[in-house]
Amino acid sequence: MGNPYGWIERSLATIHQANWYRSPQALDGLPGPVMMMDGEAVLNFASNDYLGLAGSRELITMTTAAVEQWGTGSTGSRLITGHRDIHRTLEREIAALKNTEDAVVYSSGYAANIGVLSAIVGPKDLLVGDAYNHSSLMSGCKLSGAGFQQYDHGNMTALRDILMGQRSQFRRCAIVTDSVFSMDGDLCPLKEILAIAEEFEAMVVIDEAHATGVLGSTGAGAVEFLECTGKPLIQVGTLSKALASLGGYVAGSAALVDFLRNRSASWIYSTALSPADTAAALAAIDRVKAEPERRESLLNMSNYLRDGLRRVVAPWGDRGFRLLPSDTPIMCMQVPDTATVLTLGEQLRSGGILAGAIRPPTVPTSRLRFTVRADHSQAHCDAVLEVLEKSLGILN
Ligand SMILES: Cc1ncc(COP(=O)(O)O)c(C=O)c1O
Fold first, then answer.
1. Could you tell me where the beta strands, DSSP code E, fall in the chain?
2. CATH code, domain with 72
3. What confidence score (pLDDT) does residue 96 get?
4. Local structure of 275: helix, strand or coil
5. Theoretical Cys-Cys bridge with 126: which of 36, 170, 223, 240, CB 3.0 to 4.6 Å?
6. 110 pocket-lining for ligand 1 (C-beta < 6 Å)
7. DSSP 287
């Protein structure tokens, strides 16, 4: 008899051979623009803590107080064990920020995405999603059992064609999209999507993970930035990026939220958010409202780094290097192949810069991914540009 687990070693060997192997590295210290890695300081251009709140004194104080008052765990699912008032307070605050009737919080953004999609549609229904959607949306689409079609990234003609050809064969339908695409940094064309949704009687599920707290005049997200506040949408997102905590949410009509509390398996059969996570997210929303200057710094620093990256990358265009279009603090430099992105990632790391070397299968083409924080300075960005320029210069 053969070894039924032997395939694991063989699969790992294939992953190594393709230069796709990944493993986490340890970071030390409070989240911030500079952190410690292997005993050395690194400039952190790889975090999703866009507003610089995860290490802030205010959030730490509020979170510590919540643990003192309510303990470390929520001890069970909300329908069976009950919840704390702060869970509902957080949901009301999310709904107020998003300008929706209600919201419900999940234990992660991933759980929210699979939870909402598998609750709102089933085998008689159709989901149509952008090809660059986040893995959690893809998983939710598959898990739902609905018919699932992908349209080319941002291509509204392709979306329309799919609906034109298939919508009438299904009962319910939803268009599913990230608002900010996490591995590119560009935005979905939400107004066009909403118009198509209206034409084909489709719901729209939009993932605001990288937009909440970051975009829009009040920090409500891309829906606000793209002037679609109050439109018929199901908004999902995470508490783990600009909101500096852990957890996810769905925001929409009161009926939708009530329905999810009765039909969404990843909410019903999962333990409530911990008091610490809940309090941290609440405190972060309070900062989003009270400190618009954090968003302003983030925007300014993003523009500064983007201009610099354009300048550094431009001479390398004919060798397959390209800065991908971005409207957000996420900026990606496309690189010709996996080996080159790994080399560049290592060179940046030895130059004291932490940035993502993103490879297939996460993305179709390899890229260096930089994320800006509100507490980055021009000097931090200049350091990135200098090390990147040198690293490109020594590629053969
Ligand atoms: C677009 C998008 N949606 C959902 C998620 C999942 O959120 P969470 O980390 O809270 O599970 C992420 C990243 O983590 C993301 O980038």
1. 34-37, 40-44, 102-106, 126-130, 147-151, 173-178, 203-207, 234-238, 248-252, 322-323, 330-334, 353-354, 356-358, 367-371
2. 3.40.640.10
3. 98
4. helix
5. 170
6. yes
7. H
- Quick one: pLDDT at residue 196? 98
237 and 103 share one domain: yes
Tokens 């765990």 belong to 73
The CB of 209 under 6 Å from ligand 1? The reply is: yes
Whether residues 324 and 275 fall in one domain: no
pLDDT of residue 396: 65
Series of mean pLDDT values for 10-residue runs along the chain (396 residues)? 94 91 90 94 97 98 98 95 95 98 98 98 98 97 98 98 98 98 97 98 98 98 98 98 98 98 98 97 98 98 98 95 96 95 95 94 92 98 98 87
Q: Provide the CATH number for the domain around residue 30.
A: 3.90.1150.10
The answer to whether the CB of 200 is under 6 A from ligand 1 is: no
In a domain, 166, yes or no: yes
Q: Based on the domain organization, do 296 and 285 belong to the same domain?
A: no
What value does the CA radius of gyration of the chain take, rounded to a whole number of Å?
Answer: 22
> Is ligand 1 within 6 A of the CB of residue 109?
yes
Q: How far, in Å, from the CA of 111 to the mean position of ligand 1?
A: 9
With contact defined as beta carbons under 8 Å apart, do 199 and 153 qualify? no
Domain extent at residue 352: 25-51+292-393
Q: For ligand 1, atom 4, which residue shows the shortest CA distance? A: 109
Q: Which residue among 274, 290, 306 closes a domain? A: 290
The closest-lying atom of ligand 1 relative to the alpha carbon of residue 136 is 4
Mutate to test the pocket of ligand 1, among 134, 180, 184, 274 (most ligand atoms within 8 A of CB): 134
Query: Domain end: 260, 290, 320, which one?
Result: 290
Is there a single domain that holds both residue 345 and residue 259?
Answer: no
Contacts of 277 (CB under 8 A, 6+ apart): 239, 245, 246, 247
Residue 251, beta-bridge partner list: 103, 235
Q: Does 70 share its domain with 131? A: yes
